Amino acid sequence: MASKSSDKVLFFSQTSIPDKFEESCLKLDDFVKHQVVLNRKIILITSGGTTVPLESRTVRFIDNFSSGTRGSTSAEYFLQKNYAVIFLHRHKSLEPFYRHLNRDIFDSLELTSTGDIVVKHENKDHLAKIIKQYKTIEEEKLLLKLEFTSLGDYLHLLKATCERLNKLGTSVMLYLAAAVSDFYIPKADMSEHKIQSSNGPLELKLQLVPKMLEPLVKDWLPSAYIISFKLETDSRLLISKSKQALDKYKHQLVIANELEKRKREVTLVTSETVNPIILSEEDLKRGTEIESVIVKEVIKLHDNYIKSN
Amino acid sequence: MASKSSDKVLFFSQTSIPDKFEESCLKLDDFVKHQVVLNRKIILITSGGTTVPLESRTVRFIDNFSSGTRGSTSAEYFLQKNYAVIFLHRHKSLEPFYRHLNRDIFDSLELTSTGDIVVKHENKDHLAKIIKQYKTIEEEKLLLKLEFTSLGDYLHLLKATCERLNKLGTSVMLYLAAAVSDFYIPKADMSEHKIQSSNGPLELKLQLVPKMLEPLVKDWLPSAYIISFKLETDSRLLISKSKQALDKYKHQLVIANELEKRKREVTLVTSETVNPIILSEEDLKRGTEIESVIVKEVIKLHDNYIKSN
Predict the structure, then answer these.
(1) Start and end of every DNA/pantothenate metabolism flavoprotein C-terminal domain (chains A, B) (predicted)?
(2) Does residue B133 surpass a pLDDT of 90?
């Protein structure tokens, strides 16, 4: 089912402009200008799942599984390599650096006799390193975070970002790790108020979301290095569906992962190559994050792409 | 549409037993025994939204709006009043004490010259108070936390908890703040793998979840003080629907709230009274949490209930 460009125009008219959209656009303008002056490569990372509201004043929604681990972890490794990162993420999903702030740390807060609060954590040295990195990134203005909740927010912000990156050619990379809904309910078909259970069983009719990767590769950012993700639960579909996506959208790379193995195994699929990345038991014990390996490989591919274009 | 007891039996057989269910039951046994020895009142607080999976190996699900603010905040105030709290909450929703651990705190972590990590927060004194409270609660074993994700997990754990509280009579309170799905897809109707968008638009048929408040009040915990919550977006329905619920289920209290005003206005509805709680602008500026007022009022109602039964 090929989606037509009219579908996309229709889709944008059927979803609301996100809150504080103009403010986000101004932030984008400033951020991109700053990076261009410093001649930095820029990566847009999308992260977390989009929601599809079932009601206008939303109590219920359809969500896609994603806590934002892939995106937030990858962002840290790209930042270490001096990429400027636009991190477009689901509100309250994991964020670079903040992701390390967990219950363990709260449990390890101690009050001293002088009234100070200190962190008595067994991984204190690791945490100290992260705090240092975080403060450097802030000072150097290497990271811009933008938030979405619904599918509509996400697509409006994605488009606005691409418009601002369009002139920067091959130095731009897109790392589309967000789990984007395939189905939605158009505004006109939506209940305004909370759907009442006293009306009995519920039938929902969801429309297909037009595949935005198509205009993105063709029109919005034709020179960028574009990476999409493919998550399946059925491993037999994984590589063939990744190849199909590359055939159809003509972008550069698909990172394929199976739901249950995603933290220790992914496959980088290009139109010519199929390159699995698998962490060993030892890697896992040492606490190696698979994103550190993915990012290293992706940067090599991006460098080659810049050289050959 | 009155739900029959056969619906409920059917529902339980159509949802899977939660992970680590036996472990949770053992924890419940220990916790309840400990509180009974110390003659403490026990409150079960449910918090956060339940999910309804659309696939067995779940990538997509329907979710109910709830970050767990009402439940986690209320839990802290009940703990301050020496209630033992069973906190049955959605995985990754807000938890008592941990809810104060936010980005602000990460931003305020500083490295000292001696290699320590200290918190340089403007609200340091407030945070110090919370850390002290938290450590006391831990030492006194006043708090048990249990997690759910899906509707099925939630209902199995709710039932198991009620079975263990049943013999404790009027000293038990239920504070059902979780946002529980009204609709679900039975296991037999569910797709095993991720639903493919290549099959075109999606039609979903959802069944009504049987109203568990009915057996809960009648059979599971007939002597307890039971509080349900009513959230609506349409304010005109709020009080009438709360009254209907009390008529139908014969429990003691409905806490009614409108989605957009829920942090500054709620109404306590009993079969005889309608008691609004509204925070003033001054209260809000001072940082008063509405849960502090709700908990005070609810404890009064519970005390009266114990005396008169």
Answers:
(1) 171-265
(2) yes
Question: Can you give the residue ranges of every domain in chain B?
Answer: 5-95+144-192+203-307
Q: Which residues contact A255 (CB under 8 A, 6 or more apart)?
A: A177, A227, A228, A229, A230, A266, A267, A268, A269, A294
- Cβ-Cβ contacts under 8 Å, B118 against chain A: 116-119
Which residues 231-270 of chain A have a CB within 8 Å of chain B?
A: 231-234, 259-260
Supply the DSSP symbol for B217. Answer: I
CA angle B30, B35, B38 (to 5 degrees): 130
Which of A293-297, B66-70, B103-107 is predicted with the least confidence, judged by mean pLDDT? B103-107
**Three-class DSSP labels, A239-280:** HHHHHHHHHHHCCCEEEEEEHHHCCCEEEEECCCCEEEEECC
Distances (CA, A) of A120 to A266, B104, B119: 36, 19, 12
Helix, strand or coil, per DSSP, at residue B275: strand
pLDDT confidence of residue A186: 83
Separation of alpha carbons A93 and A68, rounded Å: 5
Q: Any idea which fold A5-193+202-308 has? A: Rossmann fold (3.40.50)
Torsions phi, psi for B49 (to 5 deg): -95, 150
Contacts of A231 in chain B (CB under 8 A): 59, 194
ipTM over 0.85: no
Amino acid at B273: T
Instruction: Indicate the CATH number for domain B5-95+144-192+203-307.
Output: 3.40.50.10300
CB proximity B92 to A under 8 Å = yes
CA distance A151 to chain B (A): 14
- Residue B210 tokens read as 């049987």
pLDDT of residue B4: 59
Residues of A in contact with B59 (CB under 8 A): 64-65, 179, 231, 233, 259
Query: What is the distance between the alpha carbons of residues B32 and B43, in angstroms, rounded to a whole number?
Result: 11
